[in-house]
Task: structure prediction
Amino acid sequence: MHAIIATWKMSYPSVCDAQHLLQEGAAAGDAVVEAITQIEDDPTLNSVGYGGLPDRDGHVMLDAAYMDGQTLRCGAIMSAEGIRNPILAARKLCGRESNCVLAGRGAELFAIEEGLPMRDMCTHASMQHWREAIRMEHRKLSAYRDHDTVCVLALDEDGGLVAGTSTSGLFMKAPGRVGDSPLIGSGYYADARYGAAAATGVGEEIMRGCLSYEIVSLMKRGASAQQACEEAMNDFVSRKLELGEDAGSMSVIALAPDGTFGAATTLDVFPFTVGNESGVHLCAVKNGVVTEVTEEEVAKLP
Ligand code: SD4
Result:
């Protein structure tokens, strides 16, 4: 039994390759890294890795995390610049007894010491996008318009279950701002016994609900991946509404040790990719219902 699930439609091509690896017996961690590094290296995907969304000062600052559900160990980097593949740094940090979450300069020095490739993560297009935002004086509001974190959960034939995330965070974020993506329990969590979960959307909202841990915790108490996603999301949204807030912008995915998956969102539509023995499928949560996406619908999806 193997399975993989990843956020947004941008993950479809790399999940096809990662699914192939799992089919050939690769470890879940290798599949997660395959799916995420391809996205990090693609400059046309502007919210992750190379060509990512700059912060308010025009720097592409990266957050990433990796958790091994068999050991419950995790590694993460946050607010780091110039690391070509943040997920590789997070994976290397996973498994350390101490110093497994590094921020800023410490994360960058770690990547250099480990011989990971470094590069200027800005592209002409990302700088253009930033200059345009400055020109339009959208410093505040536009921060919450453009964002798409890649989150990948993979299960291998040996029961390995791994969660990984990588993002440049919210466009025009404040220098030093960290979202949910590198925060254990908020942006990701994995326990090979019960399941894995990850979140994408506005980190400031997701982290208040510790959504990923909450989903795995519900699975631990017997919920299916889909029930856990819906319950965690509905409960947190209800609390927000009680507090006089709106539902916000949050989406979650989950994967159970039996290969079944779940997803939930506060958006009208949230696309994600699923790979398993039956192939790779582009799916979406639409009006609260998970469906497979038809070819005609793909172009209209975020
Ligand atoms: C963040 N959660 O930095 C990330 C952004 C994101 O889809 O997921 N975008 O808050």
In short: The first strand starts at residue 3 and ends at 7. The mean pLDDT is 94. The radius of gyration is 18 Å. Residues 147-149, 167, 169-170, 179-181, 200-203 surround N-hydroxy-L-asparagine (CB under 6 Å).
